[in-house]
Amino acid sequence: MAKRLFVKTYGCQMNVYDSARMADVLAPLGYASAESAEDADMVILNTCHIREKAAEKVFSELGRMRKLQTAKAEAGSRMILAVAGCVAQAEGAEILRRAPFVDIVLGPQTYHRLPEMVAQAARAGGAVLDTEFPPEPKFDFLPESRAEGTSAFLSVQEGCDKFCTFCVVPYTRGAEYSRPAAAVLAEARALASQGVRELTLLGQNVNGWRHDDGWTLGRLIREVAAIDGIERIRYTTSHPRDMDDELIAAHAELPELMPFLHLPVQSGSDRILQAMNRGHDRDTYLRLTEKLKAAQPDLALSSDFITGFPGETDQDFADTMALIREVGFVQTYSFKYSPRPGTPAALMPDQVPEKVKEERLAQVQALLLEQTMAFNQSCVGREMKVLLDRPGRHAGQLVGRSPYMQPVHVKAAAPLIGTVARLRIVKVHPNSLEAVTA
Ligand code: SAH
Ligand code: SF4
Ligand code: F3S
């Protein structure tokens, strides 16, 4: 009988990719995807540990899952409950202590072993915990990716050696690892042959990707761009320290490489950047963005910011606001600093009061909203290539994404789904752009 799997994903795009791959791993065991946890024989919570709130969500969701599990048991069937991802990696034992009804706890580096874990859990006899960093990279054991739709993620790099003082990722994901180019290209070809037109190359430090022969990410992107069917390429998340000339040149030379780059800077103050151990200062970042814009004049930048890092003064924060204006970011993700267990910043003196963190966050977000709206407005009248990937809400309408990830809707015929169309932007709506065929 067909079994049903429901995966709930928290956190970053790497987790989205991992969730899809876990479903791929379990498909040969007969697991098809379920619409909701209520319909599932197995539920995986793929978790994120980046901020306190994210981690706490998992424990409240586990409470809800327990009720479903009990209801299933009373009806004479069983629901296997697994916790995967970064909370599992960081707090595996704690999860089993606080939620002993969990059947499987697995880290981001062991999910190729899920079939064995499921078999073990099915034999009952207590929970299975596998949060090792096994010597064999999981990618060597995964089945072929199954594509859904025309845009897909592809992990090329994992882990982080940067150790920013606020961040848990180096502890939850382990050391930097680059997948071999041949494996990446084979997966890209397989996805293209299933109809994928846009690939987003993923890594916690994606531009830290290195190949034994000295290739860097710019070269890998060139090879991906040469694959038949791949029309658009993105990559995320990059670190300013790993942005090399080959990658910058790729922005100048490859029409497939989208002119939109997420390049987190976190703060505009040199003092804070140093305390964060970012390994670059404000000026280096500014010069880097200038170089990128010189290579690709259409480039738009996005970033992440943390407000209220320990020791952040009004002046430091003013430097951040000034940097946001100077670079002209068109999008950002911003967060209040959240002290994480085991990270150096959590123990630093001069922790900033919650209220100050919140006020500064609100200011960053208000400024960014202004800049995003101004950018959207500047798109009116421009021609853009839009990957139309689904029907819109209204009849005869299709929706897709601009090169800058803006949702765009247009009156167009259904056969255009899955194609890149040249459109002219005519109007800005609160959450989307309206276009006509150019
Ligand atoms: N590898 C990426 C981002 C990883 S985490 C990079 O280096 O930029 C995604 C974002 O979460 C970070 O860019 C940072 O802005 C935010 N973040 C990480 N740890 C945080 C913490 N302790 N408190 C608040 N925000 C945090
Ligand atoms: Fe975290 Fe810094 Fe590594 Fe990004 S570079 S994952 S912020 S430690
Ligand atoms: Fe979260 Fe882990 Fe990604 S902590 S942001 S899911 S790498």
UniProtKB/TrEMBL annotation:
Outline the extent of the Radical SAM core domain: 146-374
Please tell me which top-level EC class this enzyme sits in. Answer: transferase
Query: Any idea where this protein resides?
Result: Cytoplasm
Where along this sequence does the record place binding of [4Fe-4S] cluster 1? C12, C48, C86
Q: Pfam families from the xrefs?
A: Radical_SAM, TRAM, UPF0004
Name all TRAM domain ranges: 377-438
- Gene3D superfamilies, from UniProt? Methylthiotransferase, N-terminal domain, tm_1862 like domain
PROSITE patterns annotated for this entry? MTTASE_N, MTTASE_RADICAL, RADICAL_SAM, TRAM
Q: Which UniProt keywords apply?
A: 4Fe-4S, Cytoplasm, Iron, Iron-sulfur, Metal-binding, S-adenosyl-L-methionine, Transferase, tRNA processing
Does this UniProt record's set of keywords contain Cytoplasm?
Answer: yes
Q: What does the entry list as the binding residues for [4Fe-4S] cluster 2?
A: C160, C164, C167
| Source organism, top-level taxon | Bacteria
Instruction: Offer a single GO CC term for the protein.
Output: cytosol
| Gene Ontology molecular-function annotations | 4 iron, 4 sulfur cluster binding; metal ion binding; tRNA-2-methylthio-N(6)-dimethylallyladenosine(37) synthase activity
Residues forming coiled coils: none
So what family is this one in? Answer: Belongs to the methylthiotransferase family. MiaB subfamily.
Q: How does it assemble?
A: Monomer.
The UniProt function text for this chain reads:
Catalyzes the methylthiolation of N6-(dimethylallyl)adenosine (i(6)A), leading to the formation of 2-methylthio-N6-(dimethylallyl)adenosine (ms(2)i(6)A) at position 37 in tRNAs that read codons beginning with uridine.
What is the protein's given name?
tRNA-2-methylthio-N(6)-dimethylallyladenosine synthase
- Organism equals Paramagnetospirillum kuznetsovii
State the organism's lineage.
Bacteria, Pseudomonadati, Pseudomonadota, Alphaproteobacteria, Rhodospirillales
